[in-house]
Amino acid sequence: MGETLRCDVAVIGAGTAGLAAERAARANGASTLLIDPAFNGTTCATVGCMPSKLLIAAAHRARAVRTAGPFGIDVGDISIDGPAVLQRVRDERDRFARLTRQSFEDLPPGIAIKARARFTAPGRLALDDGREVEADRVVIATGSSPVLPPAFAGLGDSVRTSDTIFEMNDLPRRLAVVGSGAIGLELAQAFAHLGVETTLFDRAQRMGGLRCARVHERLHAIIAADLDLKLGVEVTPHAEENGARIEWSDGEGDVGEAHFDLVLAALGRSPQLGDLDLDAAGIACDEKGIPLHDRRTMRCGDSAVFLAGDVAADLPLLHEASHDGAIAGRNAAAFPAPVAAERHVPFSMIFTEPTVATIGAAQGEGAVTGTTDFDDQGRARVEGRNAGLLTLHAAAPDGRLIGADMVAPAGEHLAHMLAWAIQQGRTASELLSMPFYHPTIEEGLKNALRTICQATPIDLPQDQDAGTPPGA
Fold first, then answer.
1. Is residue 336 classed exposed, middle or buried when 0-12, 13-18 and 19+ CB atoms within 10 A define those classes?
2. Residue 389 in contact with residue 215, Cβ under 8 Å?
3. Cα–Cα nearest to 54, from 170, 192, 190
4. Helix boundaries (H) for 109-197
5. Which of 335, 456, 355 has its CA nearest to residue 400?
6. pLDDT for residue 372 is more than 90
7. Alpha-carbon gap, residue 258 to 244, rounded angstroms
8. Which of 1, 82, 345, 400 has its CB 3.0 to 4.6 Å from that of 170, i.e. a possible disulfide?
9. What confidence tier does 261 reach under pLDDT thresholds 50, 70, 90?
10. 357 vs 47, 146, 409, CA distance in Å?
């Protein structure tokens, strides 16, 4: 029998959620242990947000050069140094990851435990180094990993996931991306903008989980202009020399096959729960094996176990993981007295060009919808970014904003403005009372806001000009 470690709160997993949970538990007076097999850094820094945005940043530069002609700027032929692009991605990624790892050094002595943990009983963990942990409460923050079905795993070196795609030495000539969720959409378009002949496949008819049919229609046109898009198809991968062959069929006669140098399997991420022996923890799980939990407290039923981050399979986003961790850590410290938290308005973005964003409630849940079309919006047209559509949803009768869907230039900024307004319960009339500078892309919101006001009993602000400046 090895050494037994004891604490109030044990946190399994040292990613974004786990770090937040440990901080919150310790700040609320609990003794803590943070258990992780590697302490390599967060998913965001190592394989997620940051390396993908580094690739997208390179793609933006390439696209800007290629589309300079209408501005009277002739750049001639351009060449893209694939190894240099990917080396910068890795160099900057490694810097972000290194800074994350350095934060582990700020933990008080004895808190970081480098080991793999599993439950042997409620409140008791076995570590793979022979030691055991007795904890009054446990936070599970083990994150997620890419889904790679056997048919794709059989492609060997010709397949990548979001965890391995950035380790390439050079850009492929022909790339198949299977899966049009956030990861697939972002990377497919980025590689296409970097000159890679890219095909994006998905069995679904809608990309990015978009709710609004009108917004998806606009996104479809934008993405289809950049790459070969095949939605509503089943794909079958086959290993071949120097690459892979993808067969596809929509079940209605549209069939085909093509050879690719590389396949990116962007088929989602799965919570990492398999090695935890959850049966021994005494908690109930759903049909997918995810512990049942309350998002207001992150507590699993009536147990002393809490979830945080991607492992909870709620909203796999960094800001949600951080919030999860803070809620779980605080409640673990306060156990058994729950401290219910008010969750942020649901808010997600996909960093395509232009940006896709989904905020709050869907269109069908709102009584009134206003629309802004960016295809001829003044500032967007000035910058050659005039593509996109926004639908804004409000509750009757007061025009209180409840949700939005968009693919829009400056979408990440518009989305933040709207997310804050929705979370604060603002009405369309209240937003129209705020200053809008001219000419800006933000000014484009006025049309959607005015439509909502006109469809409700609430008048437009009387001290505001109801006209539209040229180019707005």
1. exposed
2. yes
3. 190
4. 150-153, 182-193
5. 456
6. yes
7. 8
8. 82
9. very high
10. 22, 23, 11
Q: How far apart are CA 335 and CA 283, in angstroms?
A: 16
Do residues 184 and 264 lie in contact, with contact meaning Cβ atoms separated by under 8 Å? yes
For 366, other C-beta atoms within 10 Å of its C-beta total 22
Average predicted confidence (pLDDT) for the chain = 93
Task: Give start and end residues of each alpha helix (H) in 284-423.
Answer: 318-334, 378-382, 411-423
The span from the CA of 5 to the CA of 124, in Å, is: 10
User: For residues 323 and 24, what is the distance between their CA atoms, to the nearest angstrom?
Assistant: 10
pLDDT of amino acid 1: 59
pLDDT at residue 383 is higher than 70: yes
Q: Which residue in the block uniquely carries the two structure tokens 């009993």? A: 457
Q: In the chain, helix, strand, coil percent, each to 5? A: 35, 25, 40
Mean pLDDT on 397-419: 95
Cβ neighbours for 242, distance < 8 A, ≥ 6 positions apart = 261
Tell me the C-alpha distance between 233 and 211, whole Å: 20
**Distance, CA of 262 to CA of 310 (rounded, Å):** 27
Query: Residue 45's pLDDT band (boundaries 50, 70, 90)?
Result: confident
Q: Which residue has the tokens 């923050």?
A: 141
Cis amide bond preceding 354, omega within 30: yes
Closest listed residue to residue 176, CA positions, set 227, 107, 118: 227
Task: Report H helices in 47-181.
Answer: 49-66, 82-103, 150-153
Cβ–Cβ under 8 Å, residues 139 and 328: yes
Q: Write the CA distances from 275 to 140, 147, 280, 292, integer angstroms.
A: 12, 16, 12, 18
Residue 393 neighbours by CB distance under 10 Å: 26
Predicted confidence at residue 458, as pLDDT, reads 66
State the pairing for strand pair 132-140/4-12. Answer: parallel
Query: What residue type is 364 in one-letter code?
Result: G
Which residue, 14, 11, 47, is CA-closest to 146?
A: 47
Antiparallel, parallel or unpaired: β 132-140 and 124-127: antiparallel
CA pseudo-torsion sign 21, 184, 159, 235: positive
Q: For residues 415 and 404, what is the distance between their CA atoms, to the nearest angstrom?
A: 8
